[in-house]
Amino acid sequence: MSPAPRDIAARTADALSALTAPAADAWVATASADGTPHLVPLTIAWHDERILLAVEGRSLTARNVVTSGRARLGIGPTRDVVVVDATLDRCVPVDDEPSLGDAYARQADWDPRGDDAYVFLVLRPVRIQAWRDVAELEGRTLMRDGLWLNSPTDAA
Amino acid sequence: MSPAPRDIAARTADALSALTAPAADAWVATASADGTPHLVPLTIAWHDERILLAVEGRSLTARNVVTSGRARLGIGPTRDVVVVDATLDRCVPVDDEPSLGDAYARQADWDPRGDDAYVFLVLRPVRIQAWRDVAELEGRTLMRDGLWLNSPTDAA
């Protein structure tokens, strides 16, 4: 027997916990223009309703996101997932916007600042879903078109 | 301090353990023809040097893989990963090849057989990489062009 499905308030709180956890990682899926999927684990930060990634500007992930404007992220173990569809807000050299570097270094367990090969990909979540098992597939959407369906008051 | 990087024999053994573990899941990245990334967690089975996925034939994952012929899978926690680039060997209704259904049901914790909406995606690994941290990025490639670099004798 599965436990009872969480309601949207609980899922939203859990999703924000996962997004804001120290040293949180995501599996980051992107695609090249010819439809080749790419997937790497990267450490994230949650800042100002955006997800920050720090990657080398020449990396395949950076090039795919800059070209397509899109990424899809999976956070959490595979049976307690948060899945985020995001669009690229902006791509910024890591030393250009102090607030980004501060937020990233505060949450992540490394700090890319000072390495001019690195950029922040500032991703805007458009859709966020969260589920644990088949019983939670219904009601898994927490954000749609960039708007929280549950309006969490604790969203940073 | 990181522990010493594993050698290729240890990484290959660990990767095969991850691929053959009971109820093993993967994050499965695919892309549509217009370059939109898709990513979902799915339970895998390792059979005859192939990775089996069981999905609804109408799912976005199935449609993307059948169209593009490609998937990239991430297995393991984000700091002990196995990453597999794979091509589609074949797409088979779940009741058509008993050896596939037997292998999937033996390793996975569910059995799709009897549901004619489901297909097995039989994926051929082309490249397999494994790493835990930055110190293991060097030497992360275990399979290239479909060939194990370490020729594991225990590969099923």
CATH topology of chain A: Pnp Oxidase, Chain A
Measured as a percent range, the helix fraction of chain A is: 10-25%
* CATH architecture designation of chain A: Roll
CATH class of chain A: Mainly Beta
The ordered string of helix (H) and strand (E) elements of chain A is: HEEEHEEHEEE
Which two chains share the most extensive interface?
A: A-B, 29 and 29 residues
- Amount of beta strand of chain A: 35-45%
Average pLDDT score of chain A: 95
Provide structural commentary.
Two copies of one chain form a homodimer. Chain A starts with 7 loop residues before the first helix and ends in an 8-residue tail after the last strand. In chain A, strand 2 (37-47) and strand 3 (50-56) form a beta hairpin. Chain A has helices at residues 8-20, 60-68, 98-107, and strands at 25-31, 37-47, 50-56, 70-75, 81-93, 118-131, 141-144, 147-148. In chain A, 21% of the residues lie in helices and 41% in strands. Chain A is built from three helices and eight strands. At the A-B interface, strand 1, strand 2, helix 2 and strand 4 of A face strand 1, strand 2, helix 2 and strand 4 of B.
